[in-house]
Design goal:
Structural class: alpha/beta
Number of helices: 6
Strand order of the largest sheet: 5-4-3-6-7-8-9
Radius of gyration: 16 Å
CATH class: Alpha Beta
Order of helices and strands: HHEEHEHEHEEHEEE
Bound molecules: S-adenosyl-L-homocysteine
């Protein structure tokens, strides 16, 4: 993104984020720095700077940028945090998280998506991200507990293993609800004595599916 048209597109991209409620300066600067272009291949590549979800490989979608911004903002990440993302997809959300946290683990059930995302992380020199092919509904026990957990696929309820892998004081943001209807984005905060639940907004995500993808 170096010619004047690209500069204009980038300004419009950031303007759209602000107008949809992404106001956190650190989140905006991470989204300014990480270009969404490389995370989208094929004939949708020229729509990378529109505030729209777009199709990616394995029948999945890269989320709408304003939703990425709002979810990231809702996580209230601290620079020392260890974050788990369930649902690597294109890798775009993980790349944004990598700018705000100390360490990011991102998992997907499709090996191909993990492989392609890893190649982009390497090309962009995002060395604090580890991408793994696992069923994220069980979390990532070997790296738990996490300060923050972000789930980018919808489950009917917050998966028990993810609740258990959240630190006391930790925050998890995830969409919950039936897969083919409108879902609620919720924020779960873990306290000494239990969990608090906040409903943030309505969203629509692909479903969280158990087991590895057929390509894995
Ligand atoms: N965060 C992504 C978009 C995710 S789309 C981005 O920035 O592009 C949701 C992803 O969740 C899909 O890639 C899908 O394969 C993955 N997914 C669904 N169920 C899963 C599970 N049980 N474990 C890990 N990943 C899962």
């Amino acid at each position: 993104m170096n010619d004047p048209d690209d500069a204009t597109r980038k300004m419009q991209f950031l303007f759209a984020l602000r107008s949809k409620g992404v106001t956190d300066a650190r989140v905006l600067s991470a989204m300014e720095k990480i270009d969404r272009g490389p995370f989208i291949r094929g004939h949708f590549a020229d729509r990378a700077y529109e505030d729209m979800p777009l199709p990616i490989a394995c029948g999945q979608t890269i989320s709408q940028p304003s939703i990425v911004g709002l979810m990231t903002q809702a996580l209230r990440i601290n620079p020392r945090d260890k974050v788990l993302e369930v649902g690597t997809g294109s890798g775009y959300q993980a790349a944004i998280l990598s700018q705000l946290a100390r360490r990011v683990y991102t998992v997907d059930r499709h090996r191909r998506l993990v492989r392609e995302a890893r190649a982009i992380f390497e090309a962009l020199d995002l060395t604090n991200i580890t991408a793994l092919t696992v069923d994220g509904s069980f979390g990532l026990p070997e790296q738990a507990p996490f300060d923050r957990i972000l789930v980018t696929a919808a489950a009917e309820d917050p998966p028990g293993p993810l609740l258990a892998q959240l630190k006391i004081g930790g925050i998890m943001v995830l969409p919950v609800g039936q897969s083919d209807t409108v879902q609620s984005l919720i924020r779960v905060t873990r306290h000494d004595a239990g969990y608090d639940y906040d409903e943030l907004r309505q969203v629509r995500f692909v479903p969280l599916v158990e087991g590895l993808g057929r390509d894995a």
